[in-house]
Amino acid sequence: MTLQEKIADLRTSALEKLPKIADEKTLNDFRVSVLGKKGELTDILKGMKDLSNEERPKLGALANEFRDEITSLLESKKSEIEATIIAKKLENETLDVTLPGKKVAKGNRHILTQTTEEIEDIFLGMGYQIVDGYEVETDYYNFERMNLPKDHPARDMQDTFYITSDILLRTHTSPVQARTMDAHDFTKGPLKMISPGRVYRRDTDDATHSHQFHQIEGLVIDENIAMSDLKGTLDTLVKKMFGAERKIRLRPSYFPFTEPSVEADISCFKCGGKGCNVCKMTGWIEVLGAGMVHPNVLEMAGIDSTKYSGFAFGLGQERIAMLRYGINDIRGFYLGDARMSEQFK
Ligand code: FA5
């Protein structure tokens, strides 16, 4: 058989095999076996050394033609295989829009957050601004500016966690009073703010006490602010939070930063004032501390206490939420137990 015939044979068998190839590996093996260094074409061309000078270039041209033809066929086969792979992938990944969707479990805001936001809404409606304070406070703002000098006995009621002797975790939201008084420009109008936030005390945890809890501070300062303004404001808050039939009662109390000071009770929402287990048979439930801002507190902020007066109050959100929803242990708020949180969707 001549070399030309051998190439013609190789071509015939290659053209027969090529269309049957269906994957990249077989295609590559085929390329190596036909056109590779140790492949069939190379083998045939080894016989060229025995050809005459006229025949050699002719055979060379024939071999090149064959190589070009097979190379271009290999390339189109390769694209064909790739296209099949992509088509198969697309087929497998088809999205069936008729399948039922996967349900994402929806969370809800913590009941303390919801309570805070509800109180914020009530005060926004009365023209108050909402102010942020610092949880890490100075002794100066937490105590001294609240009329509690270093050796004041009332400091014992609010022992806290100290970072240095002058820096501490605030025991109440009242330092925000002093900070907003310092910043307020009274030529632009009265100061009306509430400030919600977390506070800390060195209290032993039990069903009604926590070493960290939440308070909302309220403060109004203007000319001619009277105790009746405080009572009317608290009355509005209590009626909106606990219902229109709730009454409010102010009892004398003591805070170094208010004079006079009061403790505010609401008529029991469970028994309506007759006496029950919620109100410990008194008909009233204590919800917050309040009073008229002490002249010393105004003067320390550079506010003329003969011209301006104000009222302030501080309530504990946990206390409000516990009363409202019949929660009997304060620790339930902080444990992160979904069975508790999910009740308040
Ligand atoms: C104060 O903290 C005053 N700063 C409130 C105030 C502000 C009075 C402005 C006058 C003017 P008192 O220590 O009573 O007051 O705390 C206020 C509320 O925080 C309490 O009514 C109670 O609801 C809540 N509270 C106090 N201690 C704890 C505690 N350990 N755990 C949970 N709640 C507490």
Bound molecules: adenosine-5'-[phenylalaninyl-phosphate]
% residues in beta strands: 15-25%
Could you name the CATH homologous superfamily of the largest domain? Bira Bifunctional Protein, Domain 2
Specify the CATH architecture of the largest domain.
2-Layer Sandwich
The termini sit apart by: 90 Å
Low-pLDDT segments, ≥5 res: none
Instruction: Please identify the structural class as seen in this structure.
Output: alpha+beta
Radius of gyration: 43 Å
Query: What order do the SSEs take from the amino end to the carboxyl end, as H and E?
Result: HHHHHEEHEHEEHEEEHEHH
Number of domains: 2
What does this entry show, briefly?
With 345 residues, the protein is α+β, with helices and mostly antiparallel strands. It has helices at residues 3-17, 24-35, 40-45, 55-92, 111-124, 139-142, 175-183, 227-242, 295-300, 317-325, 338-341, and strands spanning 129-130, 136-138, 167-169, 191-200, 212-223, 248-255, 258-267, 284-293, 308-316. A hairpin with a 2-residue loop joins strand 6 and strand 7 (258-267).
